[in-house]
Design a protein that fits this description.
This is Beta-amylase. Pfam families: Glyco_hydro_14. By secondary structure, the protein is an alpha/beta fold. The chain is built from 16 helices and 10 strands. It has a domain at about 100-290 and about 355-525: Alpha-Beta Barrel (TIM Barrel). The two termini are about 35 Å apart.
């Protein structure tokens, strides 16, 4: 699922073209060694070719699904782009596995693998290109759809058998959220029917904003320990689901086909509050809203205020703006605003601790269910407003990371406690590109990636990553490589793995796929013949 709000902006009608972004009225100040490059979401098949670039031919005959795709002759396209900057040679560097996310609806609600024959052909192409494995969402809404603790894993059994036959590895996501409300969602998979029935009579099981709007994408963390789900708590429901999966697919764990389980912990399967939902009118780069108005989280807030001795603090900020506000136009997030007051620090500590506590509870049970297996947690890259003091968009998402505090160290610590890896997004984005497309967002994806990766590495936990936007071009792939294998790192640190978003027909367009295949080789530490030096 694509959760990146930048993609939401790029897909809106009437927005400036990515290929020719509007120039700012005055030159932007130079950023640390950042060169101007195309936005990562642009397919290579839409780029103009430079005469200094050679499109390589595959060293072997490509499988049938690729042979039928049109090829691109570089001589047919005008030479309008300047020569590319020199590329770093990754030959001989550590091997970083590459996985590819399968389509969101690869298994439908009837337990069927969608377009199975086409999928097998595509998987064969990926295998021939050196891809290590694939990532699959196991949707709670499909598996436990009708009655509590009645699980239907039929479709996933068929899919996993196909993947094993092709000798690919599996990353499996425990997806406890709905599919269909975010940018990039091309199917609709709601929460289980029996859960939504409970929600009709008790809507406080959902995250709620200041205006009382409920977000049905996932369950509020306020019910983690409340027996409101037909006699079970939230965390008990998650544990029962994970334990059922572990039993049903024991053979795939035993033979090593399942290499990792990613635990869904919030909106979009990420560890965050659903603070920027498009369904409630949010648009990039709005700061989002706090999501703590259901009665269970309100009760938690009151208890925290009473324990602190300030019952008047048992409220969420009343000057935090709305979904599409800018931080400087609010009393809470502006420079010198209430976010850094005694009350503001109390509230943000509580709000972010609820997020950490939820991760702690669920990961403790995940470690029991998947004992001896690798587990991971995905953390979203909320990179807009990163260059402001308050980091407002991160605060509403639950990351207490203003300019005077490290908001990711506590998350890294809880992952370390349970032996979980951190999977971070937006590693393909360049700060200068974001500045060109939407300068007023004060975004800094490179600064955020650097902070989060180092917070995780300093805590001694493995780090994996994935791209936030569709990526088909060399500049985007090179940025991923730079983050995957930092240059001159004195400790030789590198990513545990990379998962590519996502398997689509566009990826298999000949020029795009050749670029992707080249990227896989370099992630594996292999030499390529057309290195730009």
């Amino acid at each position: 699922m694509i959760s990146s709000p930048a993609l939401f902006f790029l897909l809106q009608p009437g927005r400036p073209s990515i290929a020719a972004p509007p120039l700012p009225s005055s030159p932007a100040p130079p950023l640390r060694g950042i060169s101007i490059s195309p936005v990562a979401a642009r397919p290579i098949s839409s780029l103009r070719s430079s005469s200094s670039i050679r499109i390589i031919s595959p060293p072997h005959a490509l499988p049938d699904p690729l042979l039928s795709l049109p090829s691109m002759d570089p001589q047919e396209v005008p030479d309008l782009l300047p020569p590319r900057p020199p590329e770093r040679d990754f030959a001989g560097t550590p091997y970083v596995p590459v996985y590819v996310m399968l389509p969101l609806g690869v298994v439908n609600g009837n337990g069927e693998v969608v377009d199975a024959d086409v999928l097998v052909g595509q998987l064969r192409v990926l295998k021939a290109a050196g891809v290590d494995g694939v990532m699959v969402d196991c949707w709670w809404g499909n598996v436990e759809a009708h009655r509590p603790q009645e699980y239907n894993w039929t479709g996933y059994k068929r899919l996993f058998h196909m993947i094993r036959e092709l000798k690919l590895k599996l990353q499996v996501v425990m997806s406890f959220h709905e599919c269909g409300g975010n940018v990039g969602d091309d199917v609709s998979i709601p929460l289980p029917h029996w859960v939504t029935e409970i929600g009709r009579s008790n809507p406080d099981i959902y995250f709620t904003d200041r205006a009382g709007r409920r977000n049905t994408e996932c369950l509020s963390w306020g019910i983690d320990k409340e027996r409101v789900l037909q006699g079970r708590t939230g965390v008990e429901v998650y544990f029962d689901y994970m334990r059922s999966f572990r039993v049903e697919f024991d053979e795939y764990f035993q033979d090593g086909i399942i290499s990792e389980i990613e635990i869904g912990l919030g909106a979009c399967g990420e560890l965050r509050y659903p603070s920027y939902p498009a369904k409630h009118g949010w648009k990039y780069p709005g700061i989002g809203e706090f999501q703590c108005y259901d009665r269970y989280l309100q009760k938690s807030l009151r208890r925290a205020a009473e324990a602190r001795g300030h019952t008047i603090w048992a409220r969420a900020p009343d000057s935090a703006g709305h979904y599409n506000s800018e931080p400087n136009l609010t009393g809470f997030f502006s420079d010198g605003g209430d976010y850094d007051s005694y009350y503001g620090r109390f509230f943000l500590n509580w709000y972010s601790q609820v997020l950490v506590d939820h991760a702690d509870r669920v990961l403790m049970l995940a470690r029991l269910a998947f004992e001896g297996s690798d587990i991971a947690v995905k953390v979203s890259g909320v990179h807009w407003w990163y260059k402001t003091a308050s980091h407002a968009a991160e605060l509403t998402a639950g990351f207490y990371n203003p300019c005077n505090r490290d908001g990711y160290a506590s998350i890294a610590a809880v992952l370390k406690k349970h032996g979980a890896a951190l999977n971070f997004t937006c590693v393909e984005l360049r700060t200068m590109d974001q500045h060109e497309v939407f300068p007023e967002a004060f975004a800094d994806p490179e600064g955020l990636v650097w902070q989060v990766l180092n917070a995780a590495w300093d805590a001694g936990i493995p780090v994996a990553s994935e791209n936030a936007l569709p990526c088909y071009d060399r500049d985007g792939f090179n940025k991923i490589l730079e983050n995957a294998k930092p240059l001159n790192d004195p400790d030789g640190r590198h990513l545990l793995g990379f998962t590519y978003l996502r398997l689509t027909k566009v990826l298999f367009e000949r020029a795009n796929f050749l670029e992707f295949e080249r990227f896989v080789k370099r992630m594996h530490g292999e030499a390529v013949l057309d290195l730009q030096v």
